[in-house]
Amino acid sequence: MPETFSHRPPRQWLQIDLTLPGELVDYVGHELTRITGCGVQMISHDNQETIIAYLEKDRDYAEARRQIDALVADLNSRLPQALQPSFTTLLEENWAENWKKNYRPSRITETITVKPTWQEYCPGEGEIVIAIDPGMAFGTGLHSSTRLALTYIDQLYRQSPHQPRTVLDVGTGTAILALAAAKLGAQQVVAIDNDIDAVAAARENIKQNHETGRVVCSATDLAELEGNFDLVIANITVDVLTALSAALVKKIAAGGHLILAGILGPEQARRLTRTLQDAPLTLIHTRTEENWYSLLLQKSP
Fold first, then answer.
1. CA-closest candidate to residue 136, choices 212, 233, 205, 60
2. Which residues touch 255 (CB under 8 Å, ≥6 apart)?
3. Model confidence, pTM
4. Do residues 296 and 284 make contact, with C-beta atoms less than 8 angstroms apart?
């Protein structure tokens, strides 16, 4: 297994565990993602949901902690039984390794299975296996937004008469989506991310999956990339998707496709669709899973 922090020193984080009613999980998960700037983990048990979030102890820690306390106080003012979050300080290397104990191979689509790099797995006939070690990056294949994007990628390669030969994955995280495209038939895949943790994890996963000849990952800015792509993928938060929408559309080749994911709830989906309404795009399909949305669009020929 690669050394998680070979590219930088480990940091300190605050782990927040919050058990709450299922109907609040989307709202609270979105708010904690916004406040911490990181994704959250959700665990279901006995009609309750536990959200686990992580807040870096950096220069913005005090303000973010204040916002978390205010969020909990606001929820408690409206609930018959008060929520009781727990807070634990973690050294980053412990966090990065401990969660891996419960990470198992998972069948995502009819074709794609995602497995940890440190576990053996025997694929069935026609099954494509992507080996992932997330390190500190987003994209194990277990989150709904990743699963939705993988489903569209699988669909384009198995059902489309014109399979994408060139692919751009924006905000690649672990490179899971880029690797899926490569294993399904893409000839050239460019993966970019502005997070050094993600680039480190992605490069290692590309190497582990023997795709260094077809998948290249860097921290190159989207605006600096040259050329167009048959398929552009972006699984990022909706505010970033909105900000990058014009640049994403510009990178799609004529007749090419755009997959957008990371969209939480129907209102975010509607707002993003309105943002794109003047672009030369046709909305082909919308998928949902656990209130997460993904859009498949096609650029005019």
1. 205
2. 162, 298, 299, 300, 301
3. 0.76
4. yes
Closest alpha carbon to 78 in 16, 15, 28, 17: 28
Torsion sign across C-alpha atoms 13, 14, 17, 20: negative
Pairing of strands 215-218, 281-289: unpaired
Q: Could you tell me the two tokens for 19?
A: 């058990």
How far, in whole angstroms, is CA 59 from its chain's centroid? 25
Q: Which helix (H) or strand (E) holds 67?
A: helix 61-76
d(CA 139, CA 173): 6
Report d(CA 279, CA 5) in Å as an integer. 41
CA dihedral (57, 59, 60, 64) positive or negative: positive
Cα 234 from Cα 245, distance rounded (Å): 10
The domains located in the chain, with CATH, are 12-99 (3.30.70.240), 103-299 (3.40.50.150)
Instruction: Please give the average pLDDT of every successive group of 10 residues along the chain, which has 301 residues.
Output: 56 89 85 85 75 86 95 94 91 61 83 90 92 69 86 94 95 95 98 91 95 97 96 94 97 98 92 96 95 95 92
User: Which amino acid appears at position 139 of this protein?
Assistant: G
Nearest to 75 by CA among 127, 37, 29: 29
List, as one string, the DSSP characters of 79-137: -SS----EEEEEEHHHHHHHGGGG---EE-SSSEEEEETTS-----TT-EEEEE--TTS
